[in-house]
Amino acid sequence: MDTSRSYLEPSSFSKKIAAAIIIVYTVITLIPISWMVMTSFKNVDSAISYPPEVLFEPSLEGYVNLFTNRSRQSPEYLDSLPPPENWYEELVRSREMVITGPSKFLGRYSNSMIIGFGSTFASVFLGALAAYAFSRFRVPLKDDLLFFILSTRMFPPIAVAVPIFIMYRKIGLGDTHLGMIILYTVVNLSLAVWLLKGFMDEIPKEYEEAAMIDGYSRLQAFFKVVLPQAMTGIAATAIFCMIFSWNEYAFAVLLTQFNAQTAPPFIPTIIGEGGLDWPAIGAGTTLFLLPVMIFTIILRKHLLRGITFGAVRK
Amino acid sequence: MKVKKKFKGLSDKAVGWLFIGPSVLLLLAINIYPLVYAIKMSFTNFYANKIGRVPEFVGLKNYIKVLNKEAIWEKMQVTASFMFWTLLLQAIIGLGLALLLNRKFKGNELLTTLIVLPMMLSPAVVGVFWTYLYNPQVGLFNYVVNFFYDFGSFDMIGSSMLAPWSIVIVDTWMWTPFTMLICLAGLRSVPNYLYEAAEVDRANKWQQFIYITLPSVLPFLLLALLFRGIENFKMFDMVVELTSGGPGSATELASINLKREAFEKWKTGYSSAFAVILFVTIFGFGNVYVKVMNKIKER
Amino acid sequence: MILLFVSLFSFSVNSNAKSITLGWAAWDPANALQELTKEFTAETGIDVNFEFVPWPNFADRMLNELNNKGKTFDLLIGDSQWIGAGAVYGHYVKLNDFFDKEGISMNDFSPATVYAYSTWPKGSENYYALPAMGDALAWAYRKDWFDRPELKSEFKKKHGYDLGVPTNWNQLHDMCSFFQGREIDGQKRYGAAINTERGSEGITMGVTAAMYAWGMEYENPNKPYDMEGYFNSPQAVEAVEFYRKLYEDCAPPGHSDAYMVANLDAYKSGQVAFQMNWYAFWPGVSKEDKDGRVSGFFANPSQNVSAATLGGQGISVVKYSDKQDLALEYIKWFARPDVQQKWWDLGGYSCHNDVLNAPSFPTSTVYAQGFLDSMGIVKDFWQEPTFVELMLPMQEAIHDYVVNGKGTAKGALDKIIEEWVEVFEADGKL
After folding, report:
1. Which CATH class is domain B63-298?
2. Complex ipTM above 0.90?
3. E-state strands within C235-312
């Protein structure tokens, strides 16, 4: 049989062509990301030089700028100050500036952490409970309920943001970590329920039934037998929830201000002296994307299920 | 009776409600209640920033105002053309990539993972970074384009002709992997015996593609486009940071306009009416689409 | 890297028992204030935390916080237009008693700044802020290019007068278009970086610089909120048309959504001969002159009248703060003449007469005289409590006309009036 005709076993030539095209696409698609990482190691001048510099002397200026506020001062004033105590003060002084204080980046980043982990834990926990019930019990209106849970994901965030804003203001949840955790938990719930239901469906009923015959109650069986079995699924779900809360912008920009603002609304506003400070934005972006990139690589097996709520089964 | 009491502890029914209850309650409180509240507000002249002012019932006035506003229809057009082009490009490129990746060459798992990276990033951060790439003076994008063909200086974000394309390009860059992944799942779900049978019938490669591959991947592609369609109808973050709806209102999508009315002008009543209209639109289109999709699946 | 992380973190959590939070916009003067405040902390042991919000969200964020009666801030350096909302809705503490008790006299501050930043109703003796940062919209230009003999003679030949600081907007346009597209030192240069930003207040702050100079008034002086024939007077229309001409003929490429930051970038990267911007940035610009760049500065040119767009802020104590006493202590310190002098030295714009009237002041920097001139002729946007709602339609309509080239100037101004009437009606003013 002529193998080149077959879909099952493509010829090695057509494989090579396919691989070549895919590699070209991959390189192109990764350029913006690599460019951003490179920019984070440039200094302010080489970031805005034309033609764009591919080779440059690496500098940590972007990272120093990301973490500090600085003020340009006259040489006389700088001379009147005590000498710099460490390398980053020295770097800033060499650009005729003085560090006036820490920037807000660290605070925003840790807000992202708190809200991200908090909401992830809550949505996975609640999602696991609901998913188990949907998977094992005869729930009245099951399909309607499942669809209802899914449909909540279709709401444009801005449409519900106004009422939530007003509601939060009334009950004092506006611009608080708790408020954002609750909100993100709810947004992630649909994903968690749908994903985990898929994973739970795959765990044989016999496991917990055996445990219950051994004298476990339903609750004990769930916590001691089913949950450990579902650990892979739970981990994958958790990471997807985390990625969502980590990247979320619309609610964060509308509902948080100073106490609970996360990094995504903050990073675009990093300005240096007058102009946008591209190395600092690059640095902030790189530090912010790092966890997600690592997660993506860990997650690659569950990727498809996660982004489609399990609607597409392999 | 005895059968149900086989195991100790709470009954299954109780456990079921205990497990589902909290989720449903939370969804009701944070999702449904606000929606109902928004519908209620859409019939009033409420301003959320004017505390203490009692809103009045104004009937359908807000809805009439929204629908009669020419500017709203412009935003809808902008949204529609944004959706049309992004979905079209993502369908073509995504499907193409999936077909290529399905050749199972060496290292294709690694490449898939790398291709997928853009869509895991934060859209807002992506938006701000692309403003740098699009910068007409120092941007990499303009440099690369001019490297291949010298257009001279051009401004992707600043020109009202190019700006709509600037957001289409970024969205396509970011989300093509999504259609690709789902199409790939579709391709892998095609049972091998179909091709084997076709080969026995001496169908050539092209015929195999038209009669076997395409029909089986189509439902998956349509599903991917449904997801993307819903997302792009809601699109806010990436575009806000990239063009903030400009220049003028060349890239002001419906949801960006909604944000301006609701959170800058604080016309809460008016913007709620607008939100309800958007919501009905997306639901209506979504339902029709799903029906069509199911019909295609059945064939 | 980790070291930096850790040391900065310890810096930020290391707070004394006594600390207050001050909010302002994120820009050069704010960093200078942070530097200045190190002395306050050394003197009093009170730590000051700073929360700087970028300009595009400044009004949004801060007013939202005030509307929510938030306790984040003890001190707020709020924009001049907010004073109405601050006073009417009771967000700001009225400072009269405190001033009397501490012997702080508003007569010690420049009258224009007191009027603009501190009083509500305008011109009364009710003070809700201490003038903190004087500011107005002005222009910077490339003095080094202006001084080149070959450019000078070419300009003179073309226009019949000397290339120098423009005395009116027509001259400004002549000069800007003279540089547009011109090659200098092997690089293509452009005319002027002007405000075109749509999202917050940028293009309004720019176009009003022209409208005020043409003699525009917002309303009938005898009949408040009667805008027809004033805000859209033939002069106002002409000014808006002129601004569009300036944008079309003289702006660098990609300057369609530009405000402070983009103007600075265009100027610093050597693209433009002129930039429009706030005085606040001139210390940084002139300190950063390098590679042969010499910056000159001038006040907003006149056309029919002399006028300039007002910027600047007063510092207020937030009513909802639990630490008003500490906040007042900060204001007391900040009002001291020696602190005000140092404020000016570090790059802030003091409004204190002792600083401004000092014989050495006009020559202390190249932009000091221009600052004095400008502060005598400033005009501001509506300071109504509803100013945000008033700002947005103006942003939209002007941007659509100037940048997008849609419709006519008259049409844009008519549309703005229409929306303003709606806002005033909803607010019960009409």
Report:
1. mainly alpha
2. no
3. 272-278, 295-299, 308-309
